[in-house]
Write a structure and sequence with these properties.
The protein is of the alpha/beta class. The chain has ten helices and seven strands. It is globular. The relative contact order is 0.15.
Length: 252
């Protein structure tokens, strides 16, 4: 089992006894944040976690390795998509959750995709927001990225330079985030068949270039649904339409 003792995990319980009774028997909900963010920013500050708790759900909100208050990965191998998915499964094991629903945004959706493949039969309903149908980190020059983080050297490649700027802005977390980029680059998203119990619901912004082409992936999965909401990639998560979609899909 993965050692998740040092990972930051927030757990929100049903807000009232009446809500808990109304949702009795419903599995907990796992919420997975995006790259360079954390669970508090993506799910608690936006009100989504509280809204789920008010509906009677137990909500589990971890920080991925290298993010928030969780420790940085020691190597890129600890930050591949399968490794991060194993972290999430260990968190749900510790919570005593045999099955659970999951919602992820951006990187969180990428990692959420890997969870049911690693644990067949455990993931029930899923919301995948801001998911890119292609792995953006495959275009990163990881040597140049690490050099930029360690020494401040400007990468020649504009995309790598943009990622380096975003990573370096995270201060002490930058080296761990660079390892996350390297790990995710080594296990690029490839789509394919959805291994969960219930086809996922994809949510994308109408002005989000990162998710272009996700409709083809949604159409390839029988029963999957694509919901388009207002906003760019960085605006969708805080919008009411995204929150309402999560609540609607995960309602019990």
């Amino acid at each position: 089992m993965r050692d998740t003792d040092a990972l930051t995990v927030r757990t929100l319980k049903p807000a009232t006894a009446a809500a808990a009774e109304a949702a009795a028997g419903a599995p907990p909900v796992l919420l997975v944040h995006g790259f360079g963010s954390d669970g508090a920013t993506d799910w608690i500050a936006t009100g989504i976690a509280a809204a789920l708790a008010e509906s009677g759900r137990t909500v589990v909100v971890p920080d991925l390795r290298g993010h928030g208050s969780s420790p940085a990965p020691a190597t890129a191998a600890e930050a591949t998509a399968p490794a991060l998915a194993a972290d999430l499964l260990a968190v749900m094991d510790a919570a005593g959750a045999e099955t659970f629903d999951i919602a992820g945004y951006s990187l969180g959706a990428r990692v959420a995709w890997a969870v049911p493949a690693a644990a067949p039969g455990r993931v029930e309903r899923s919301v995948l927001g801001g998911l890119s149908p292609a792995e953006p980190f495959t275009a990163v020059d990881v040597d140049a990225l690490h050099g930029a983080v360690r020494e401040g050297t400007e990468p020649a490649d504009p995309f790598t330079a943009a990622i380096a700027g975003m990573v370096s802005a995270q201060g002490d977390r930058a080296p761990g985030l660079a390892l996350c980029v390297e790990g995710l680059r080594s296990t690029p998203f490839a789509g394919g068949a959805w291994p969960g119990k219930v086809p996922p619901v994809f949510v994308v912004g109408d002005n989000d270039d990162l998710t272009r082409g996700i409709g083809d992936l949604a159409e390839s999965i029988g029963g999957a649904r694509l919901v388009t909401v207002p906003g760019s990639h960085h605006e969708v998560l805080a919008g009411p339409r995204f929150r309402d979609t999560v609540l609607d899909v995960l309602a019990r």
